[in-house]
Amino acid sequence: MATHPENTHVNHTFAALVKADAQLAPLAAHPYAKAASDEQINAAKVGLEASGFKVHLVNDRSEAFDTLKSLIPNGASVNNAHSTSLEEIGFITYLKGETEWNNIHAKILAEKDPIKQSELRRTIGSTVDYYLTSMSAITKTGALVHADLSGSKVGGVAFGAANVIILVGSNKIVEDEAEAYKRTHEFALAAESARARDAYGVPASAIVNYDVIRKANPFNPNRIQVILVKEALGF
To answer: Helix/strand/coil (H, E, C) string of the chain?
Structure first.
């Protein structure tokens, strides 16, 4: 069995944050933190495929890592949004080392001038060959739902990047768009705010941009692929 890199951000998993952050603690046993049933997982897969998305169903973090790695060709330019899910499978740790790809995220972070770094996020960061991220919810009706503060994630996923690979745990599965909105604003935002308090010393995060992707792009139907993991990942 292959050995995969460890998560170097274990303090920012949901399990760690609920223990460390008093504001998040009431959500410790929330159903949105738990893996879905096989029935729910299959329903979500069917819904996403009916919407035109390519879905790779995997059992665990190890399979998720191997699948994600296999989908990105050598030499491709790669960027990622912040994603606890990507951290949890060890992929962010892997990206920080020598890889087969052109790591645009590393180049962006190497620029220390805030204005120049923001410009890099807008230009080369959004127009990579492969953009890696997660979602705050996926619906059984086949929609992908996510949000951000700056717009860099939503922009790259919606149009900028040539290809998008979404890694999502089964804990993100919800019935419909109404529940996706609820999960994003009441659960995911609370967890991300706890992470932001620890990582950046700010009172909370915020949702400025909210995006629902209901169908694959009819002009480029293979652009977005989803790796659906039977385990719980991220928040």
So the answer is: CCCCCCCCCHHHCHHHHHHHCCCCHHHCCCHHHCCCCHHHHHHHHHHHHHCCCEEEEECCHHHHHHHHHHHCCCCCEEEECCCHHHHHCCHHHHHCCCCCCEEHHHHHHHCCCHHHHHHHHHCCCCCCCEEEECCCEEECCCCEEEEECCCHHHHHHHHHCCEEEEEEEHHHEECCHHHHHHHHHHHHHHHHHHHHHHHHCCCCCCCCEEEEECCCCCCCCCCEEEEEECCCCCC
Sign of CA dihedral 69, 101, 7, 227: negative
Exposure class string for 199-212: b at 16+ Cβ within 10 A, else e? eeeeeebeeeeebe
Q: Which residue numbers in the chain have pLDDT < 70?
A: 1-2
Residues 6+ apart with CB under 8 A from 68: 89, 91, 132, 165, 167, 227
Distances in whole angstroms, Cα of residue 36 to Cα of each of 14, 30, 104, 163, 229: 16, 12, 34, 27, 10
Decide if 159 contacts 125 (C-beta within 8 A).
Answer: no
Please give the model's pTM, rounded to 2 decimal places: 0.96
Cα 99 vs. chain centroid, distance in angstroms? 20
Per residue in 49-70, pLDDT (tens digit) is 999 999 999 999 999 999 999 9
* 146: nearest Cα among 156, 134, 131: 134
